[in-house]
Write a structure and sequence with these properties.
The protein is of the alpha/beta class. It is built from 10 helices and 14 strands. The structure holds S-adenosyl-L-homocysteine (SAH).
């Protein structure tokens, strides 16, 4: 049952300090409670052992401590782990642990479902139910960090916002979660190890620049030709490539940071020389790198991975133009944990 009480984890440290001052107690108690909630990650007021019994009872009367449950875990042959995560209201999202030899990466969700309509992505078939709260994003990272220590023998090293949802359409909560992930009271991770991936929402990219964020930005480009992009990502009619490019120029001017373009090459969709030339031209607007990602089929439909010859054509032309390009093999395909496959199938 969903409680009527407010989630104490929606309060900032300042709010908690004010709460205790209002009770005639020391503001410092607020810091102690904050540390229990975020640093120690407890789920019950009774565990706050340095807080008096009376105060704990008072907190219990007024608040709940919402938290996620890892409902089920699936392990891939390649070591990738997918968590189905149950939220306090029973909705489910997925997050993924991707290990390599030297590091482990968490791929986290930012929304339940997605409001965008990328035709090649399984999540777009689930309608957007709601945004995730900062604590729900944070908890996914904590859960994956624990699994990373348990199964890989090392703490989590990187985070990518490439799970379900469009992070920039849940801007405030995503940024708040990153504040908690990077703060010393939270996980103390460097923002340089975090990448937020967007389908390309120009207004919010400008806002990121204005907010002088320190994490990396990736843009799911997939085509630098307006007409083609609209066919595969229909929302691009509202967020045009011209506007996207202008917002990225602004991003670079303000932050001095590069952009990563994620790009899938599909047979008969974006595999011609014209497509490659358009990408090269787009890449000249701001310093960038291109990450060619493998397509993970979601059905037998119109989208088919282009042959390696087409990918080589892209690599040749990009390299000739001194644009860094990497090709990323997909991970966790056997458990539908790879990019674009997150659709709560196992639940
Ligand atoms: N909405 C954000 C983040 C979620 S998608 C975004 O679009 O960036 C994360 C990445 O997976 C994006 O680059 C997206 O284009 C890619 N993706 C989606 N469906 C895919 C599929 N079936 N195969 C491979 N990558 C896919």
């Amino acid at each position: 049952m969903i409680s009527e009480k407010k989630d104490i984890r929606s309060l900032s440290k300042e709010d908690l300090r004010d709460f205790f001052e209002g009770l005639g107690d020391k503001a410092f108690r607020g810091n102690q409670v904050y540390e229990w909630l975020w640093g120690k990650g407890i789920h019950s007021f009774d565990d706050m052992t340095n807080i008096s019994k009376e105060t704990r009872a008072h907190l219990e009367e007024n608040y709940v401590i919402n938290h996620i449950e890892v409902d089920s875990i699936q392990k891939s042959n390649d070591g990738t782990i997918k968590n189905a995560v149950k939220l306090h209201d029973g909705l489910i999202v997925e997050s993924v642990l991707i290990p390599t030899k030297k590091r482990t990466t968490a791929c986290v969700s930012s929304q339940v479902g997605c409001s965008l309509d990328c035709k090649f992505c399984a999540t777009s078939r689930l309608k957007r139910m709601r945004n995730l709260n900062p604590d729900e994003i944070y908890d996914q990272v904590v859960a994956i960090d624990k699994e990373s220590r348990l199964y890989q023998g090392m703490p989590l090293s990187n985070i990518v916002f490439m799970g379900m949802g469009e992070p920039l359409m849940n801007y405030k909560n995503v940024l708040e979660s990153i504040d908690k992930i990077t703060s010393v009271e939270g996980l103390g991770m460097s923002p340089k190890r975090i990448t937020v991936s967007t389908s390309g929402v120009p207004k919010m990219i400008r806002k990121l620049a204005d907010d002088e964020v320190k994490f990396h930005l990736a843009v799911s480009l997939h085509s630098a030709i307006q007409e083609t992009r609209e066919q595969i990502m229909p929302f691009a009619k509202s967020f045009t490539l011209e506007d996207l490019k202008a917002s990225l120029v602004y991003w670079h001017e303000k932050t001095g940071k590069k952009v990563t373009y994620e790009y899938i090459v599909w047979d008969g969709i974006n595999d011609t020389l014209e497509d490659i030339d358009a990408l090269v031209k787009f890449c000249k607007a701001v310093p960038c790198k291109v990450n060619i990602i493998e397509y993970n089929p979601i059905d037998d439909g119109e989208f088919q991975q282009a042959p390696s010859r087409s990918i080589d054509n892209y690599i040749d032309k990009l390299e000739k133009n001194r644009i860094p390009v990497t090709v990323r093999r997909s991970r966790g395909k056997d458990i539908d944990a790879a990019c674009g496959q997150l659709a709560n199938k196992a639940t």
